[in-house]
């Protein structure tokens, strides 16, 4: 269950990063509130997961999920353009996240 909490925390990291961009420097109050709520839930679920999971595994997986999620949202929602080489590195990041989970023994 702790891995589920960690995945949820990573997804909320993507939420708050996205809504922070949509807040336009915290000038749009609704998106600023969504950013704060997303950040709260991201930290909340990370705190639950890290009770049982080693920090050396949980933190990089949490940030990795947020990074990959933010890349995907950037491409889909904001029209960010990535080179094929960049996509290769995104794939390596995703493979690394999965590899850390499966080799951790937790």
Write a structural description.
By secondary structure, the chain is mainly alpha-helical. The protein has one domain. 84% of the residues lie in helices and 0% in strands. It has four helices and no strands. The chain has helices at residues 2-22, 29-52, 55-78, 84-103. Helix 1 runs antiparallel to helix 2 (29-52), helix 1 (2-22) crosses helix 3 (55-78) and helix 3 packs antiparallel against helix 4. The longest helix has 24 residues, at 29-52. The mean pLDDT is 95. The chain crosses the membrane at residues 33-50, 57-78, 84-103. It is a multi-pass membrane protein.
Short recap of the structure:
This protein is an all-alpha fold. It is 84% helix and 0% strand.
Distance N to C terminus: 11 Å
What general form does the structure show? Answer: flat
**Total DSSP E strands:** 0
Whole-number count of domains? 1
- Helix run count: 4
Write down the secondary-structure element order.
Answer: HHHH
- Briefly note the structural class of the backbone: mainly alpha
Percent of sequence in beta strands: under 5%
Oligomeric state of the chains present here = single chain
The percent of residues in helical segments reads over 70%
The biggest beta sheet reads: none
Average pLDDT figure: 95
- Could you tell me the radius of gyration in angstroms? 15 Å
State the low-pLDDT regions, or none. none
